[in-house]
Design brief:
The complex is a heterodimer of chains A (403) and B (146). Chain A has 403 residues and is an alpha/beta fold. Chain A has eleven helices and twelve strands. With 146 residues, chain B is an alpha/beta fold. Classes of the chains: A alpha/beta (403), B alpha/beta (146).
Chain lengths: 403, 146
């Protein structure tokens, strides 16, 4: 029974003479031991000091052990309970197990036996915590996979639509251009209400430009064959992009800090695509702040990956928007200002480059976008398959020895 | 200065687009012909001495690239400007390798279109000019030798 250190126990017994020496002996074995003289005291203590295992006598004045057990299972489900019963009342122990006790021991208790039981109870608790963690992680992964698949099909659909819209858009544009041309003819120089027509045509043209911006942005990252892999220095790209956005940021009194220090940030990737990713994230950060704030761009490296972080002191992302921010056309900006494609395109690019994006955000405090990129494309086999990426991450987190 | 109109052939299966585009070009002083398919385009080229073809890449039946190949085979000095959707820039690049003068993304900007039309026509004029001069030289040389 090793590694008992820091495991917390609570002894509940109305007899101090029994409790005190047991506490001492258990403490010698490395447990942190609390004691309670009654069920009520036990409840009070557990409220302040959660423990791993409660060892409780069954026969006590006031609340008996079974009642204590029921209360613990209801209020501290993760805490294991070992009951101590009188020699003649094994019945109590059986009832206790039915109600969720880990086990029972009959008094007088053999010390080594008790220590062994406590160890087993702690093991069970740990296993259960692990199981729960794993289930949660799996559920999260599955959710993420569903989201990825949904995004992919949504993307295919919307790029298809964008493509189809370009044609009628071209017709509308020709019509507007033609009318404009006619209005400028000598023969129409004195046409009544000419400015009204010109105004309306101007509006049509603006709207066409807006629609064009959407379709072009949407189709922009579909051009797979235009990916050129080469040696890419993230530091250089960050410096370049920051310079590009500096003026805009300065006007809004936003300070941009670069913390790219000692990281080895040279990777084998597509510099143009990555520049767009940095630019999009930076633009987003500036938009999230509005005015007066700071943005920190940092690079951290591990052997096979490089992480690029863009941290802002902006408005943050409310929980209900978290799932939607990568969807095409999702925007919180007024119509005509944002296309709702920036992050959609960004995540599309990052996926294509075999990386992933993590976000942490707190409303009113700011957001942190972390882009994880592989050092080289070999570092992420099967990059086309999101499921595989998910499982790779899963294995990595679980520390799968086969990886 | 009187500008000699360019003879432009617009080829697109979108009839409304062809109509409006040709109306506008005619209004700006070009001589415009239209066709709604690759096949019709080749027929028109056989009848008229066209300077520039504005050719949509995505058409049912004979598509823009096939049409382009055929145009370049039969009328190598006719200039071709390709029209393409944003998702198919690679195709436009392929087209330029096959001899197209340039490409434009739909919906195309009218100023850009005017610039490219002008450029294409100029290139064809120059090309024809060089052919004429070469023919003259050949004639002179033959004359001198005899």
């Amino acid at each position: 029974m090793s590694a008992m250190g820091n495991n917390r126990l609570l002894l509940v017994d109305d007899e101090t003479d029994f409790r005190a020496p047991l506490k001492k002996r258990l403490e010698k074995r490395g447990f942190v031991v609390f004691e309670a003289g009654s069920g009520d005291e036990c409840q009070m203590l557990l409220g302040n000091e959660p423990v791993d295992v409660v060892v409780s006598d069954v026969k006590m004045p006031g609340k008996n052990g079974i009642e204590v057990l029921e209360w613990i299972k209801e209020n501290h489900g993760k805490t294991e309970v070992i009951l101590l019963t009188g020699h003649a009342s094994a019945q109590d122990g059986v009832e206790g197990i039915k109600k969720g006790a880990f086990d029972y021991l009959t008094k007088p208790v053999e010390f080594e036996h008790l220590v062994q039981k406590i160890g087993q109870a702690i093991d069970k608790k740990k296993r259960e915590a692990e199981k729960k963690q794993e289930a949660e992680f799996k559920a999260r992964m599955e959710q993420q996979m569903v989201a990825t698949e949904r995004l992919a099909s949504l993307g295919t659909l919307s790029t298809g639509i964008a493509h189809e819209i370009d044609n009628p858009l071209a017709i509308i544009k020709e019509c507007a251009e033609y009318m404009k041309l006619l209005l400028n003819k000598q023969e129409l120089a004195t046409m009544p209400r000419k400015p009204d027509f010109e105004n309306a045509i101007g509006k049509i043209e603006t709207a066409i430009e807006r629609a064009k911006r959407i379709t072009h942005q949407l189709l922009g990252f579909v051009r797979k064959s235009e990916t050129f892999f080469s040696e890419t220095d993230l530091k250089e790209l960050v410096a370049e992009t920051v310079e590009f956005a500096a003026k805009d940021a300065e006007n809004k009194r936003i300070k941009i800090f670069q913390d790219t220090g000692h990281a080895n940030a040279v990777i084998w990737s597509d510099p143009y695509a990555i520049r767009q990713v940095i630019f999009n994230l930076l633009t987003n950060a500036i938009a999230a702040i509005g005015s007066d704030g700071t943005i920190k761009i940092s690079i951290k490296d591990t052997e096979s990956r490089v992480m690029l972080c863009v941290e802002d002191t902006g408005e943050g992302i409310p929980k209900e928007n978290m799932e939607k921010i990568f969807e095409p056309f999702f925007t919180t900006k007024p119509p005509g200002v944002g296309t709702g494609l920036g992050l959609y395109v960004t995540s599309g690019i990052v996926n294509r480059l075999g990386g992933r994006i993590d976000i942490s955000s707190r409303v009113g405090q700011g957001s942190n976008f972390q882009v994880m990129l592989p050092r080289s494309i070999e570092a992420c086999a099967d990059m086309g398959d999101n499921k595989n990426i998910c499982f790779d991450i899963l294995n990595e987190i679980k520390g799968d020895p086969t990886k | 200065m009187i500008r000699i109109p360019a003879k432009v052939l617009i080829v697109d299966d979108e009839k409304d687009f062809v109509e409006m585009f040709s109306l506008r070009l005619t209004e700006t002083g070009e001589r415009v012909f239209t066709a709604n398919s690759g096949q019709k385009c080749l027929e028109k080229l056989a009848q008229e001495n066209i300077d520039v073809v504005v050719l949509d890449i995505k058409m049912p039946g004979m598509d823009g690239i096939e049409t382009l190949k055929e145009i370049k085979k039969r009328y190598p000095i006719v200039e071709v400007i390709l029209l393409t959707g944003h998702g198919a820039i690679e195709t436009a690049v392929d087209g330029m390798k096959l001899g197209a003068y340039d490409y434009l993304l739909k919906p195309a900007d009218s100023k850009e279109m005017a610039k490219k039309l002008e450029g294409a026509r100029k290139r064809k004029d120059e090309h024809e000019d060089r052919i004429r001069k070469a023919e003259q030289k050949a004639l002179l040389r033959r004359g001198g030798n005899i």
